[in-house]
């Protein structure tokens, strides 16, 4: 069935995505959704529109959507500097430590879940390959998925396409579900509230006071220029590092993050007048990203994949979530921290950072990206190791 909006109708797709963002932003402010955040509704609305064939699916490789690719290629990198203009370097080590513990618990959950799934669901002689690629992608990302798949000669398997669909579509449903956790009343009572009282910006950083000293248009222009320059230099440096050291990982966001952290800590006073506007602009980019995440969630497509592969992934994600929730509860960590750490496991740094921003966890954006990149480092090793063990 054809979509109401064609994949190559870029402006129509962009208009709908922006409309979804407005719906989420206004709805959260006016309490249309009760305790559900605007971010959750943005993802959910995108998923509904794709399922109803209004928007083209972001997972359709045969009909790529330029607008979606623009969001991934440009707005996500730009959003990272915008969201952490006032990052405090002294907080990163301590905060990374908290999220790192949760991330490692989540990784253990993925490994145990894969072993359990291999025992409960047998999809033939390639069961061990399925376990390996899911461990790779759920501790790292797509790069680890492909690396493990290539290692196990899984690329030509009849299960490969179904596994790719589950990885790209079902994972986004899980991310959407993660967003709801901090707003579920029956869960909230078991976890402490997340606070950032130590990182409350000084008065000059608030929109009310900044607007009286620096014109709004100037704030936006300067913030976008700094973010753009940071991304340009970051991509350039990333390319140099990959070539010089033979790095196969995608380190673009890590380099961009390192640059803006350096700039923010070297010139805090100079950046202070632009921080509030930068964060607002970055949040808009995040909402667009979340709308695209929703556009990756086609419910009908999920029903057509091999059920064995789907339930295999479901068991892994269930064990992962159970372990990270229990671990977070024992360590007295907030649901928001648990969500970000889980997103770093399942979605990688490109999703964990934006999710931290969307949950208004400004001091956790950089740590979220850092632990997500750590997943890239260990994902292939864990995936191959688990696959060989299951075999």
Commentary on this structure:
- The chain is mostly helical and 391 residues long.
- The protein has one domain (10-193, 206-390).
- Helices cover 73% and strands 0% of the residues.
- The chain is built from 18 helices and no strands.
- It has helices at residues 10-29, 38-51, 66-83, 89-120, 127-139, 142-151, 160-180, 185-188, 207-210, 216-245, 252-266, 268-271, 275-294, 299-304, 307-330, 335-347, 349-358, 365-390.
- Helix 1 crosses helix 13, helix 6 runs parallel beside helix 18 (365-390) and helix 10 (216-245) packs across helix 11.
- The chain is globular, with a radius of gyration of 21 Å.
- The two termini are 41 Å apart.
Shape: globular
Radius of gyration: 21 Å
Q: Kindly, what is the distance between the CA atoms of the first and last residues, rounded to a whole number of angstroms?
A: 41 Å
Mean pLDDT comes to 84
Q: Structural class of the secondary structure composition?
A: mainly alpha
Low-confidence stretches: 198-211
Total DSSP helices: 18
| Biggest sheet layout | none
Quick summary:
With 391 residues, the chain is mainly α. It has helices at residues 10-29, 38-51, 66-83, 89-120, 127-139, 142-151, 160-180, 185-188, 207-210, 216-245, 252-266, 268-271, 275-294, 299-304, 307-330, 335-347, 349-358, 365-390.
Provide the fold topology.
Layout: H1 10-29, H2 38-51, H3 66-83, H4 89-120, H5 127-139, H6 142-151, H7 160-180, H8 185-188, H9 207-210, H10 216-245, H11 252-266, H12 268-271, H13 275-294, H14 299-304, H15 307-330, H16 335-347, H17 349-358, H18 365-390
């Amino acid at each position: 069935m054809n979509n109401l909006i064609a994949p190559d109708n870029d402006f129509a797709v962009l208009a709908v995505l922006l409309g979804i963002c407005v719906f989420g932003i206004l709805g959260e402010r006016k309490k249309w959704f009760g305790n559900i955040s605007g971010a959750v509704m943005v993802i959910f609305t995108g998923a509904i529109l794709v399922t109803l064939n209004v928007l083209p699916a972001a997972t359709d490789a045969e009909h790529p959507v330029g607008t979606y690719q623009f969001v991934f290629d440009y707005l996500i990198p730009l959003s990272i500097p915008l969201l952490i203009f006032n990052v405090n370097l002294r907080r990163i080590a301590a905060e990374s430590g908290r999220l790192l513990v949760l991330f490692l618990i989540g990784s253990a959950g993925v490994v145990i879940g894969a072993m359990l799934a291999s025992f409960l669901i047998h999809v033939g002689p390639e069961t061990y390959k399925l376990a390996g690629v899911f461990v790779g992608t759920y501790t790292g990302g797509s790069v680890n998925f492909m690396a493990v798949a290539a290692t196990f000669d899984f690329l030509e398997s009849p299960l490969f396409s179904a596994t790719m669909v589950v990885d790209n579509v079902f994972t986004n449903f899980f991310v959407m579900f993660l967003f709801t956790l901090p707003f579920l009343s029956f869960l909230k009572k078991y976890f402490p509230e997340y606070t950032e009282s130590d990182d409350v910006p000084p008065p000059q950083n608030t929109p009310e006071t900044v607007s009286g000293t620096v014109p709004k248009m100037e704030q936006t222009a300067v913030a976008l220029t700094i973010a753009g320059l940071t991304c340009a230099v970051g991509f350039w440096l990333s390319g140099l590092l990959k070539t010089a050291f033979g790095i196969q990982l995608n380190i673009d966001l890590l380099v961009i993050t390192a640059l803006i952290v350096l700039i923010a800590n070297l010139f805090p006073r100079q950046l202070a007048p632009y921080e509030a506007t930068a964060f607002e602009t970055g949040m808009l980019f995040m909402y667009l990203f979340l709308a695209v995440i929703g556009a990756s969630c086609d419910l009908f497509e999920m029903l057509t994949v091999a059920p064995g592969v789907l339930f295999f992934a479901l068991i892994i994600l269930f064990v992962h979530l159970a372990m990270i929730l229990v671990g977070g509860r024992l360590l007295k960590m907030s649901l928001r921290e648990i969500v970000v750490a889980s997103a770093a496991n399942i979605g990688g740094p490109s999703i964990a950072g934006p999710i931290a921003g969307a949950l208004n966890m400004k001091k956790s954006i950089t740590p979220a990206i850092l632990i997500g990149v750590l997943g890239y480092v260990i994902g292939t090793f864990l995936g191959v190791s688990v696959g060989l063990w299951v075999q």
